[in-house]
Design a protein that fits this description.
alpha/beta, Rossmann fold, 6 helices, binds glycinamide ribonucleotide
């Protein structure tokens, strides 16, 4: 049985699309059963509709000042749809301990840096400003502290001399679309906590000392 999975978005939804595409494979252990956006105009909602997936807007603005009530509404929708796993995919709201606790061990987040480097926003600009030679992305379990839960998969990319924020972001995003399906496959298939070769968890590793292409 495929694990019923919800994806929470706030915008474009390219990671949502990567998860939808991966889940089409009959052998993939999760199905994308619900998409929730806190932004009524999120382009990702259209991707969900095109794929025939139930999509709901649970806007945060009507709940202004009452984060707990907004999260209770999300939790209610997840429970009503019999969701087992949750993927945050560009969901740009900080979660309170309530929702994190409800979904502990069952909620993933994708972050556009090699955590623990560059938690928070503007990761690509910060990597460039720091002179990083390697950058990347991370999928991790969500815990109370932002961008800091146990890591399931990371992918590394080189930072090239001519990079600006847009070129670097695009290189990282291409890897996000690889590792998010991989991480969901690990979690849904019950493989997430098992020991494995580190190479299977680090996609596209750069040999130490290698010149960036
Ligand atoms: C992705 O790059 C994701 O890693 C990032 O937002 C983008 C969403 O793109 N998430 C965060 O920064 C979370 N702190 P998408 O809507 O096309 O998937």
């Amino acid at each position: 049985m495929k694990r019923r999975t919800a994806v929470l978005i706030s915008g474009r939804g390219s990671n949502l699309k990567a998860l939808i595409d991966a889940a089409r494979d009959p052998r993939f252990p999760a199905e994308i059963a619900l998409v929730i956006s806190n932004e009524p105009e999120a382009p990702g909602l259209k991707l969900a509709q095109e794929a025939g997936i139930a999509a709901q807007v649970i806007a945060h603005r009507p709940f202004r000042g009452d984060r707990a009530a907004h999260e209770a509404a999300i939790d209610h929708a997840l429970t009503a749809a019999e969701i087992e796993l949750v993927c945050l995919a560009g969901y740009m709201r900080l979660l309170t301990p309530f929702l994190v606790g409800r979904w502990a061990g069952r909620m993933l987040n994708i972050h556009p840096s090699l955590l623990p480097a560059f938690p928070g926003l503007h990761t690509h600009a910060r990597a460039l400003a720091a002179g990083a030679k390697v950058h990347g992305c991370t999928v991790h379990l969500v815990t109370e502290e932002m961008d800091s839960g146990p890591i399931l998969v990371q992918a590394a990319v080189p930072v090239l001399p001519d990079d600006d924020e847009a070129t670097l972001a695009a290189r990282v995003l291409a890897q996000e679309h690889v590792i998010y399906p991989l991480a969901l496959r690990l979690l849904a298939g019950g493989e997430a906590g098992k020991p494995a070769s580190p190479a299977s968890r680090l996609v596209n590793p750069l040999p130490i000392g290698a010149e960036a292409p």
